[in-house]
Amino acid sequence: MKLGIVGLPNVGKSTLFNAITRAGAEAANYPFCTIEPNVGVVTVPDERLKVLDEMFQSKKVVYTSIEFFDIAGLVKGASKGEGLGNKFLGHIREVAAIVHVVRCFEDPNVVHVDGKVDPLSDIETINLELIFSDLEIIERRIQRTQKNLKGDFELDVLNRILKTLEEGKSARTMDLSQEEKEFVRSLDLLSSKPIIYAANVSEEELALKSDSSHVKAVERYAIDEGAEVITLCAKLEAEITELEEDERVAFLEDLGIEESGLNKLIQASYHLLNLISFLTAGAPEVRAWTITRGTKAPQAAGKIHTDFEKGFIRAETISYEKLIECGSMITAKERGLVRSEGKDYEVKDGDVIHFLFNV
Fold first, then answer.
1. What local confidence, expressed as pLDDT, does residue 35 receive?
2. What's the predicted TM-score (pTM) here?
3. DSSP state of 110
4. 192: CB partners within 8 A, 6+ apart
5. Which SS3 state, helix, strand or coil, does residue 277 take?
């Protein structure tokens, strides 16, 4: 899973990127500090793997991971090549979802490109640049479709997208059928990508647990887009990463904060992209695999190896909770709790699966 961290210059996105990936990307108080996207890989915390590791005495534990791209700060006119706009827009096409860091903190020592803190204005600046870029794509696609005399279906959807974009709305706000969604996905529009707004607040505001007017404004805006919103403090996240695991937990408890911004971001990403994890366990390794909710057993097997999908016979599966109740796979089998599922089975979150296949 690839997530692109975007935002106007000096909103705290590189600070957040450094914090959650410990990659050490340069973070400075001036625009265009990030030119090429920095890439950091973060493992997805999953306590279930630790428990299974102890049960199976595995040699290795493999967590699933997320790639974060820290993409160059954007300014007005990016869709026309202003600043580093063309690079910015090109890098966004590579990600599954956008994490838009929005400045919701006041600090006279950190300059704002527009001279004042206004999160909705910041959001609209970036969204409009994505919309302008998409407008060019849609207009060209409509001309080609008309010239090639393709079916009314495509032309109808394209014209509806065009109307939405011309109204200043992102393509992700459209109400579409499943068939229409598949077609729009094939267009690879920037404004159709799922989005998480990361409201970057001060440490004091985060500890107070009462959303500021800035955060509430972002939450209201996100409703129409079906977007996720999380509240975090990038500066605090940077401090947390310098601590050991046990110190980190104590530090958050002292501040009255239940979970880190990274955990919030991961959970929001899974929810937004409709993702789940199934598990495999044995003596060689215990591992989590990320799939889209609703994935059938053969396709889930294909995540492990293409041969598993091609020669799929069946999936022997048990829910993580039932396996833990039994205490071992042997006991689970004795109690008849390990099910044999065929090719039409939809894998569930937390399924512990052993695939049988024949090449």
1. 41
2. 0.84
3. S
4. 134, 170, 171, 172, 184, 185
5. strand
Which tokens belong to 48? 């279930």
Q: What local confidence, expressed as pLDDT, does residue 94 receive?
A: 83
Give the CA dihedral 222, 228, 233, 234, nearest 10 degrees.
-110
What's the pLDDT at 29?
A: 41
- Going by C-alpha positions, the residue among 165, 3, 159, 160 that lies closest to residue 91 is 3
Task: For residue 291, give the nearest of 304, 300, 301, 279 by alpha carbon.
Answer: 300
- Cα distance between residue 350 and residue 281, in whole Å: 12
Per the CB < 8 A criterion, the answer to whether 44 and 38 are in contact is no
From the list 263, 247, 245, the residue with the least C-alpha distance to 255 is 247
pLDDT at site 139: 93
pLDDT digits (tens, 9 = 90+) for 224-252: 888 999 999 998 888 888 888 778 888 88
Rounded distance between C-alpha atoms, residue 319 and residue 296, angstroms: 16
Residues 197, 264 contacting (CB under 8 angstroms): no
pLDDT of residue 18: 84
Residue type present at position 62: V
Cα–Cα distance for residue pair 189/171, rounded to 1 Å: 8
CA 293 to chain centre: 15
CB-count exposure of residue 41 (10 Å: 0-12, 13-18, 19+):
exposed
- Least Cα distance to 203 among 240, 241, 243 occurs for 240
Return the percentage of the chain with pLDDT > 90, whole number. Answer: 53
- The answer to whether 125 touches 8, Cβ cutoff 8 Å, is yes
Question: Cα(277)–Cα(288) distance, rounded to whole angstroms?
Answer: 6
Please give the pLDDT value at position 83.
42
Model confidence pLDDT, tens digit, residues 253-278: 888 888 888 889 999 999 999 999 99
Alpha helices in the chain (DSSP H): 13-21, 47-56, 85-92, 119-147, 152-166, 178-187, 203-208, 213-225, 234-240, 245-255, 261-272, 297-304, 306-310, 320-326, 329-334
Would you list the DSSP string of 26-79? ---SSTT---SPEEEEEEPP-HHHHHHHHHHT-S-EE--EEEEEEPPP--TTGG
CA distance 190 to 172: 9
